[in-house]
Specification:
Elements: E1 11-13, H1 21-34, E2 37-44, H2 45-48, H3 52-60, E3 66-74, H4 78-88, E4 95-99, H5 103-114, H6 124-138, E5 143-146, H7 156-167, E6 175-180, E7 183-184, E8 187-188, H8 191-208, H9 212-218, E9 228-231, H10 234-237, E10 240-241, H11 246-257, E11 263-269, H12 287-305, H13 312-339, H14 346-369, E12 376-377, H15 380-386, H16 390-405
Parallel strand pairs: 1-11, 2-3, 2-5, 3-4, 6-11
Antiparallel strand pairs: 5-9, 6-9, 7-8, 10-12
Helix pairs in contact: 1-7, 6-16, 8-9, 8-12, 8-13, 11-12, 12-14, 13-14
Keywords: Transferase
Organism: Pseudohalioglobus lutimaris
GO molecular function, one term: transferase activity
Length: 407
Amino acid sequence: MGDFYQNGIITTLHNLANRPLPDLEAELQRFSRERPMGLILPSLYSELEGEALPAILEELKPASYLSEIVIGLDRADESQFRNALTFFGRLPQRHRVLWNEGPRLQALDKLLQEQDLAPRELGKGRNVWYCMGYTLASNRTESVALHDCDILTYERSMLARLIYPVAHPRFNYEFCKGYYARVADGKINGRVSRLLVTPLLRALKKVLGEMEYLDYMDSFRYPLAGEFSFRRDVLNDILIPSDWGLEIGVLSEMYRNYANNRLCQADIADVYDHKHQDLSEDDDQGGLSRMSIDISKALFRKLATRGVTFNTETFRSLKATYYRIALDFVETYHNDAVMNGLSLDVHGEEKAVELFAENVMKAGEAFLDRPMERPFIPSWSRVISAVPDILEQLHDAVEADHEEYGK
């Protein structure tokens, strides 16, 4: 059970009473008449064959307050897309699957590439971006939630608590970030958030001095959570990274575009577990190693847009400061685990900190070496300005795929 403490500068909506799910969903059903709701699911085809996604669909079936579910499907050939249409066909809600490798969406992507408006790399960010575009094109929802498809402990209450703040007609929130304790199977998980993001934010405060942006980012209890919800108008102007900096990028964009009192975070689960990434100590192009570099670069870029000047000496100081703070956190988490009867591998934690410290420097060097790098996917408002009928083309392509391959 959560407490009622408000930390930082973002409103925290706690789970104080374990409110029964039927009560929440009955309210959401009433809200849906005034503010229709949708869900975005960015998915790899391989997740259809895994343990998590089939169970997620079973949980979603009774969520009748959803007007539409938009699924982004990556890494699927034609036969796999046909299978996906059958797989998601069990959903009673209106749903559409975006076949991102299909000829129609590939042609659309090529059109945008010719105008330098398409996402530049494959990944979750690109998938989410096209799903956001289809949500705008469909124009069926006013409040939209997004969550991953690899959640092993998924319960429908997560979705209800996630979308409630932006669906309530008398709340003024434009955005809600989900949070939870990353505890499962007797262990504390969430290494990148615990051992990279939080200590890096604290180190940035020491090196650069206090600034509201850093206080804002440090207010989120789980900044790397892949679960968030938003009002439809957010989708027009948001700039998101196409790499592992997606979650940091989204939080930063909400800070840039909206007042803090329009943003919140909500406790959506007591237990949360999903597919774990390898540390990838010997390969900084994969696993948590690549993730830590992308996340660090995302923070440095956002700080640069706020007028912060970086140089090699800054990053050296930052690495040293981060390393000391992160090692102190290892002891803190170890003691927390012991008191709760959980296990925590101190040696493994310190190895992760050592790798992340190296990658803070690598991220800094990459930031300095490639000053002209454009890390963000263009906003949909810019794309619409360049190609006025792009949403109609996207909508028609998805509908044509369903008509042709769904038979």
